[in-house]
Amino acid sequence: MDDAHELETLMAQLSTASARMEELVAAWTERTFTGGAEEGEVVATADSFGTLLGLDVSRRAKERLDSARLGEAIVAAVHAAEAAAAAAKDEMMGDMRIGDGPSLRDMLGDARRDFRERSGF
Q1: Integer distance in angstroms from the first to the last C-alpha of the chain?
Q2: Structural domain of residue 46, as residue ranges?
Q3: What is the pTM of this model?
Q4: What CATH number is associated with residue 76?
């Protein structure tokens, strides 16, 4: 394969991948994620970036839990919603690739690993 043909193929792959990535990101940003605690009596809702959008605390939870346990349940529900959003982002990034190359998640995972090894963080 000559260089010009290889470049044309790569450009086509980039264009297709870019359009696909835009679709994935657009769909992901519209999603919301929930996390619960205390058997679903405390439910947090977050957007795709992990920003808290809402918190629902059942009457039963308010009556049954003391303030410390209720606070812990709220924090647990928020963390669960944030974790669901992060997992969805990770899944989306696993679908982002150019041609048969590695996914964006894999490429960034390597960079994160290298940073951790070099920095100790």
Answers
A1: 44
A2: 3-119
A3: 0.72
A4: 3.30.1310.10
